[in-house]
């Protein structure tokens, strides 16, 4: 069965510093990987995805993520954090086919001015 | 496109009452998902449909929960009778074969007193 782990419940970073939100996954085949962001009282917004190809994928709002097959990781990164990036971030995975996404428990990112 | 539309955005009801949540997926999407989000359990998949047909309802917590999709542009999630432990934010999401990611609605915050 597919699964995803976000080892950190909370990440704190100073504004202007680089940020990383960690995600590891487990699937039986090739993974389809996703990052979503949730702002207070809002639905989940799609940020980026890895399906195939270049291991570094770029998404919305300056975020990027690096797929590492050997470490089964898909960490979310941004070179310079903004206070407005403070939100709840979810990593998700799906196996081959049209199965639903499996979400991690989420990581709360707090960017401090 | 207006995105996934959910109504109502907020629902407050008394224990024992019937609650109906509504969802309009993105036009042309052939998958529809219902999720529940709570602080304790995170984001849980309740049920999903493909071409209006329920595919997997193993996440529906009890027989008090039911979902229907009478046509491609409308789905309902019903709780009868409602209980305080059903209080949560309920999300609807839709997707299309070949685009992989799911798009979420703004959610319905349900409070059962």
What are the key terms here?
heterodimer; A: 113 residues; mainly beta; six-stranded mixed β-sheet; four-stranded antiparallel β-sheet; 0% helix; globular; B: mainly beta; seven-stranded mixed β-sheet
Question: What does this 3D model show about the protein?
Answer:
- The complex is a heterodimer of chains A (113) and B (113).
- By secondary structure, chain A is mainly beta.
- Chain A is built from no helices and twelve strands.
- Chain A has strands at 3-5, 10-14, 19-21, 24-26, 32-38, 44-50, 56-58, 64-68, 73-78, 87-94, 102-103, 107-112.
- In chain A, strands 2, 5, 6, 10, 11 and 12 form a six-stranded mixed beta sheet that branches.
- In chain A, strand 8 (64-68) and strand 9 (73-78) form a beta hairpin.
- Chain A is globular.
- The termini of chain A are far apart.
- Chain B has 113 residues and is mainly beta.
- Chain B has strands spanning 5-7, 10-13, 19-24, 31-38, 42-50, 53-56, 65-71, 74-79, 88-95, 103-104, 108-112.
- Chain B is globular and about 40 Å long.
- Chains A and B meet through strand 5 and strand 6 of A and strand 5 and strand 10 of B.
Short recap of the structure:
With 113 residues, chain A is mainly beta. Chain A has strands spanning 3-5, 10-14, 19-21, 24-26, 32-38, 44-50, 56-58, 64-68, 73-78, 87-94, 102-103, 107-112.
Which descriptor suits the 3D outline of chain B?
globular
How widely separated are the two ends of chain B? 36 Å
Element pattern of chain A in H and E: EEEEEEEEEEEE
Q: What is the terminal separation of chain A in angstroms?
A: 41 Å
Q: Helical stretch count of chain A?
A: 0
Strand-residue fraction of chain B? Answer: over 45%
Beta-strand percentage range of chain A: over 45%
Radius of gyration of chain B: 13 Å
């Amino acid at each position: 069965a597919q699964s995803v782990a976000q080892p950190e419940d909370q990440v704190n970073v100073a504004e202007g510093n680089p940020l990383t939100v960690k995600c590891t996954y487990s699937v039986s085949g090739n993974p389809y990987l996703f990052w979503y962001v949730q702002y207070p009282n809002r639905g989940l917004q799609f940020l980026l995805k890895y399906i195939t190809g270049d291991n570094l994928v770029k998404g919305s709002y300056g975020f990027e993520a690096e797929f590492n097959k050997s470490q089964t990781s898909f960490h979310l990164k941004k070179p310079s954090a903004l206070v407005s990036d403070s939100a709840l971030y979810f990593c998700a995975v799906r196996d081959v086919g049209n199965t639903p996404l499996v979400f991690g428990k989420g990581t709360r990112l707090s960017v401090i001015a | 496109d207006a995105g996934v539309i959910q109504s109502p955005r907020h629902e407050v009801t008394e224990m024992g009452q019937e609650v109906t949540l509504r969802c309009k997926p993105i036009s042309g999407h052939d998958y529809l998902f219902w999720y529940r989000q709570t602080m304790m359990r995170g984001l849980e998949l309740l049920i999903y449909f493909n071409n209006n047909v329920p595919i997997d309802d193993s996440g529906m917590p009890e027989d008090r929960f039911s979902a229907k999709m009478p046509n491609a542009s409308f789905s309902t999630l019903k709780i009868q009778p409602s209980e305080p432990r059903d209080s949560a934010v309920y999300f609807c999401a839709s997707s299309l074969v070949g685009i992989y990611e799911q798009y979420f609605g703004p959610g319905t915050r349900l409070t059962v007193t």
